[in-house]
Specification:
Structural class: mainly alpha
Largest sheet: none
Number of helices: 4
Distance between the termini: 71 Å
Number of domains: 1
Helix content: over 70%
């Protein structure tokens, strides 16, 4: 029977192997994104064996996947621009909100 401690050891071995491999051979940026996605998939499989969706392995997999997607967004230039908030609400209220927001940020 596999215990959580055994799964954590396997995850640590994956971390070590994936940390040592880049030092031996530098990768291109997109290859690094794929490498991170692979690591997240491996951690997801371990988390499934952990039988608890809220375990440390599933959190680690999610963090690695978030890092991979952030890097991919950076490489493609798809980083979201916060920009101005859209006008929403009932007819006529959006323009009042925009006017109030403009007045609040007006220096004089």
């Amino acid at each position: 029977m596999t215990t959580d401690r055994d799964l954590e050891r396997v995850a640590a071995a994956i971390d070590d192997a994936m940390r040592d491999a880049p030092a031996a051979r530098p990768r291109a940026r997109w290859e690094h994104v794929e490498w991170l996605r692979l690591k997240a998939d491996l951690l997801d499989r371990l988390a499934a064996a952990q039988r608890s969706g809220h375990g440390s392995l599933s959190r680690r997999a999610e963090l690695v996947r978030d890092n991979a997607e952030r890097l991919a967004d950076h490489l493609t230039g798809v980083v979201p621009d916060p920009g101005p908030l859209p006008e929403q609400g009932w007819p006529g209220t959006g323009s009042r909100w925009a006017a109030a927001a403009a007045h609040a940020t007006d220096p004089d």
